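Here is one chain, start to finish.
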Amino acid sequence: MNQTYGMAGVSAVVLATALVGALGLRVSRTTSDFYVASRTVAPRLNAFAVSGEYLSAASFLGIAGLLLAQGVDMLWFPIGYTAGFLVLLAFVAAPLRRSGAYTLPDFAEARLESRAVRRIAGVLVVGVGWLYLLPQLRGAGLTLRLLTGAPGWLGGLVVAAVVTAAVAAGGMRSITFVQAFQYSLKLTALLVPVVFLLAAWHADRAPLPAWDERPVFHRATEVRLDRPVTVTVHEPVRVTVSGSVDGHPLSGAALTLTEGRHRIGAHTGLRFPPGAQVPLPERETGSASLAPSGAEHGLYATYGLILATFLGTMGLPHVVVRFYTNPDGRAARRTTVIVLGLLGVFYLLMPLYGSLARLYAPDLLLTGDTDAAVLMLPQRLVGGVGGDLLGALVAGGACAAFLSTASGLTMSVAGVLAQDVLPALGLRHFRLAVVPAIAVPTAAGTVVGGLPVADAVGLAFAVSASSFCPLLILGIWWRGLTPPGAVAGLCLGGGSALAAVLATIAGGARSGWAHTLLAWPAVWSVPVGFAAMVLVSLATPRRVPPGTAATMARLHLPEGRALRWRG
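Its structure:
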């Protein structure tokens, strides 16, 4: 990728984000503007904003990278991401808007009249938000590294600074305009290049990728490894090496890699002939695959992924908070329907990029940079100035992806911190809360920077599905839910999922059922959350809040009728 063009594209996106944010700042005046844009955002604008923040680095970069590495099994990711909004539309969107809350902890306290439930919900909101921020910062670091060669942590630091300024200055009113703009930019950054990529693919006689076999080099390809890698070769392959293989220094010499394991030294270049299978690197000690097709118990892992993405959407704090900005419940439902269409259009492009990467960028499997597939394809297929311009557009779209989602997540986490940790001083403490909201995941990203972006997002979905899905479904549709039941469900479901996720990131279990159960906890943690809430609530029927009847009426009756009923 041409670094000059790429930096120009990223800089243009950052500048445009600042200008659009300034437009929102001009109309942001009150506390309600900062938290929920005074609940006046129209459905179409809100749908673009929801899509803008929901389509994160995991969607823009990670899905194509997983399709390259793991094949069509990874299509469960976009299906789960989109289908989750169907559950949100059917069960949550309108009642949640009618609750009148600012955040998920607000809803928990209003429904159950319990400060304890609010505090636990606040802890989980912050945990999910920080987990989701990790892949955005990794995507930023990856993009900046490809553009400038700078270390990966610098990209996350730059994004953290831009997001802090945007969120602290304008709050939800400003971020709404920014995220709506960034959805349009992300879609354009994928849609325009894919036209030229498909034209180049057709001019190359339209080869088809091999999904049932190990990926092969479609063309003669030179791969340079910046770090030592141990690879497994399944068929002997003749390569040209500049560097070291199995401890033997070589300088432009031809070598046959025989079947078995080989150690490739750092700063080694290998040139592979067309048709050669890609040697796949072995996982480093202490790491383990989080992709279902790479798991020891693939069927279980696939169900864990589907359940997490399908049920986790409704509890994502940065998505849920956007429904509080609609004027009423009907507008919230219309927003969700439009979002389904916008997400569908976007995700139709991902299989195209994944397939083209399987053909023209299989070397990324060897270097471990599969998340860079979308960024690399324009130069691989088009080349020249045209490829540089398309690459700059894609880089700008990637920048918009992690900026928009990071802004929404920071907004939701800062809102909880400001209300529950730094209370009573309004906008001043909201602005102060923005700093830890983004600083903690920025620091953590330097420790877990090797985690693929889509994997990290899947872990955040698992925690959300295990905690907020039971709370929202039962809190909205079952009047028998009690504060002790909610506490039990949040702690046992959400708490156990969060512990499993942290253990996975830390490398607590590397293989076997122990790793599988920890890496994909939704299969057991979601039922645990629901069962705990129901059983404990049934055991404590006298703890049903006294205002439950009025609260349920407000959640389910249209706004005008609810007011008359209370009167």
